[in-house]
């Protein structure tokens, strides 16, 4: 086990952060890219083909409006699909993959499904390239009642207000080298525990739900994505990020217990994607296309197996 003090500059080894340390961390965060230019401008271009709703606003150093993009002809007789991106704002292809799916593919499925996409759930995290929100809270561990993360609670409240049951929920994520160089050391320091270095899987993988594993659904997504990019192999112990694989490129978590985004929606078919943009074998464009392939692979499976 490794001492957090050797790996992170804020706090005292073995002691959880208080408000002082969290404010110190927040003061170090800087805007590095534009949510308006890179995300909102692309959402606005979708208005001719989708209904766009503003489901909330985050008031941090700037005010961030939050958007939901919906099928324009919502039909209660069709199954409903939820796609979420940017729960971790720094995971670029999650946001851009959701937007690309809307631009290039979503309308092709409009006769079969009602589609709802929340492309950028954590816009402050997108702009500052961060996993956490400004309060040093991870939104993707905060999808539960009375959530301390407003990013998560606004999504929960909005989806609840629709009174809609979802057949499938695909949540788009990345695993990056900064997980090991920044975010996991910061997490250990925040929580006052030792940090043990781990590897980053080289390739695409999925996180399913232990309560609703749906292995054929997961396999269909893997098979769709492998046409675009490589699938992450397990380590020498048959694991990916410390979990035994269930099949090629798939691990399962108790998503509701952990407060993960796919856990709150209670969709029968749910998965979290993980792209590796720092791989020497993948480009940024391939990572975006892998996210799109994950969503289309999921939808094609649902059509092929006549899921309703």
CATH superfamily: Zn peptidases
CA distance, first residue to last residue: 48 Å
Low-pLDDT runs: 1-5
Number of domains: 1
Average residue pLDDT: 95
Task: Report strand order across the widest sheet.
Answer: 1-2-4-3-5-10-6-9
* Shape-level CATH architecture: 3-Layer(aba) Sandwich
Walk me through what this model shows.
Strands 1-2-4-3-5-10-6-9 form an eight-stranded mixed β-sheet, sandwiched between helices. A two-stranded antiparallel ribbon has the order 7-8. It has one domain (31-187, 202-304): Aminopeptidase, CATH 3.40.630. Mean pLDDT is 95; it is low at 1-5. The chain is built from ten helices and ten strands. With 308 residues, it is α/β, with parallel strands linked by helices. α3 crosses α10 and α7 (215-225) packs across α10 (284-304). Helix content is 34%, strand content 19%. The protein has helices at residues 19-27, 35-44, 92-104, 123-128, 150-162, 178-191, 215-225, 255-258, 261-264, 284-304, and strands at residues 50-59, 63-71, 80-85, 114-118, 168-174, 205-209, 239-240, 243-244, 250-253, 269-275. This is M14 family metallocarboxypeptidase. Its cofactor is Zn(2+).
């Amino acid at each position: 086990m490794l001492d957090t003090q050797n790996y992170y500059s804020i706090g005292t080894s073995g002691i959880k952060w208080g408000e002082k340390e969290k404010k110190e961390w927040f003061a170090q965060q800087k805007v590095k890219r534009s949510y308006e230019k890179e995300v909102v401008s692309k959402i606005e271009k979708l208005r001719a083909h989708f209904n766009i709703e503003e489901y909330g606003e985050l008031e941090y150093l700037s005010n961030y409006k939050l958007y939901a993009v919906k099928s324009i002809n919502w039909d209660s007789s069709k199954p409903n699909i939820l796609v979420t991106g940017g729960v971790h704002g720094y995971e670029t292809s999650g946001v851009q993959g959701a937007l690309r799916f809307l631009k290039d593919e979503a309308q092709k499925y409009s006769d079969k499904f009602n589609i709802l996409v929340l492309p950028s759930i954590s816009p402050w995290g997108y702009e500052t390239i961060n996993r956490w929100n400004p309060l040093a809270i991870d939104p993707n561990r905060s999808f539960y009642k009375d959530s301390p993360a407003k990013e998560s609670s606004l999504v929960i409240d909005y989806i609840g207000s629709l009174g809609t049951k979802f057949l499938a929920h695909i949540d788009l994520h990345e695993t990056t080298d900064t997980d090991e160089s920044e975010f996991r050391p910061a997490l250990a320091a925040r929580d006052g525990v030792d940090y043990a270095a781990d590897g980053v899987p080289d390739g695409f993988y999925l996180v399913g739900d232990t309560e609703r594993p749906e292995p054929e659904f997961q396999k269909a997504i893997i098979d769709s994505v492998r046409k675009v990019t490589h699938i992450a192999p397990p380590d020498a112990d048959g694991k990916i990020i410390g979990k035994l694989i269930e099949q090629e490129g798939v691990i399962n978590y108790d998503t509701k217990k952990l407060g993960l985004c796919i856990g709150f929606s209670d969709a029968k078919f749910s998965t979290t994607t993980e792209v590796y943009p720092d791989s020497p074998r993948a480009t940024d464009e391939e990572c975006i296309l892998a996210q799109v392939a994950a969503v289309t692979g999921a939808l094609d499976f649902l059509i092929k197996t006549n899921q309703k």
